[in-house]
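Each lists sequence, tokenised fold; shown next:
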Amino acid sequence: AEFNAPLDVDALAAFASVAGEALDQAGKLLGKREANNLTLDINYVEKIVVRRFTLAQQAAFLLLVCPQSIDERSEVELSIDLIAEVLAEEN
């Protein structure tokens, strides 16, 4: 799903796939399989955050573009909880 994306949606989807693979590889190389968050500065103002989480026993990714100045961690966790809640209601 996409909401108000400031970048090309197809490019963001492709990036999510690459970032997911990077998270997997980083976890293996560092011996930290629970690694689940990747942040990339895309310019002086914005960053991309990719958060892997489990939904219905499947890996899922939340990707957001936000100002570099914010600490997005609590909002990401809240968003994941809300996504899981909405999807549970649909089943």
In short: The helical segments are 9-30, 73-90.
